[in-house]
Write the structure tokens for this entry.
Amino acid sequence: MKKSKNPKPLIVFYALVFYVFLQFGWWAYLIFEMNVEITDLKKEVAVMKDESSQSDLSEFDNALHKKLLMVIGEGSVFLTLLFIGFYQVKKSFMREFSLARQQQNFLLSVTHELNSPLASIKLYLQTLLKRQSIPEEKKENLLSKALLDVERQSKLVNNILLAAKLEDNSFQFKIERINLSRTIEQLIENHPQDTHKVEKKINNNIFIDADLTAIQSIFTNLYENALKYGTTSEPVEIVVEEQAQSVALTVKNKGTTIPEKELNQIFEKFYRLGDENTRNSKGTGLGLFLVKFFTDAMGGKIKAASTSRGETAFTVYFKLSE
């Protein structure tokens, strides 16, 4: 069943807003009518007593005009404040609703991400236990696959722990002079894969002042996203180079185009393209959040670009170490 785009509480909210404005208009009409009737009664009383000339009667009209202007002025101010209040309430509600939906997607994806490696590891171990006569080469293959699943699960848990530490400000940055070129080379070597060709353009001995754990998290998340969403027939490009007084780390792939309106949203916590029930790619919506947070915290900048041809590039800029 397809979920409604507008939640039921929002429909009730719109109905309430409509009722309030309708009642406001009705009260305004009654106030106008009441002032007109009071003025007419004053005129009739004055005429009956024969105490008023034509000029005196016009004073009643002037007084009525002033009262009506005062009602219009005060009503306009009240209506403006009421409109602003309703707008802010709706904005806050939609923000909370969006966050709740993202958290729900996060729980769905985490459940899947934790369960899949466990199921695979269980299958590999059961195979090894039940089939004692498996050739050594086959055993090594099964154990290697189990180890990869353990590493995958370990990375997921690390991302969740890092996000939790950032949430309560318990992560302690240890800024030191880092050889970014060597660090990126080591991370690529420690992440063997045979699905994509990797093209590297890494200038030697580029140093930055940064936290090593944060740099590892930034590159690992960008690199794994490039492998995950990139077309296997196209290479993943990694560039580390100096640009004036800064260092640029670029991870580029060709695959799914990111809509321009979502290029900034992808860095939000739990945010993922598409719906959790229909998307095929794995993930929790924490990777790019961590990338953006760590980059900003260390004084860097990140830029995302995606073309209609499916070319997507993430570039992180840091100040060159002196």
User: Anything to note?
Assistant: Strands lie at 175-179, 198-202, 207-211, 236-243, 246-254, 301-306, 311-319. The chain has a mean pLDDT of 80. Helices lie at 8-48, 54-130, 136-167, 180-189, 212-229, 287-297. The longest helix spans residues 54-130.
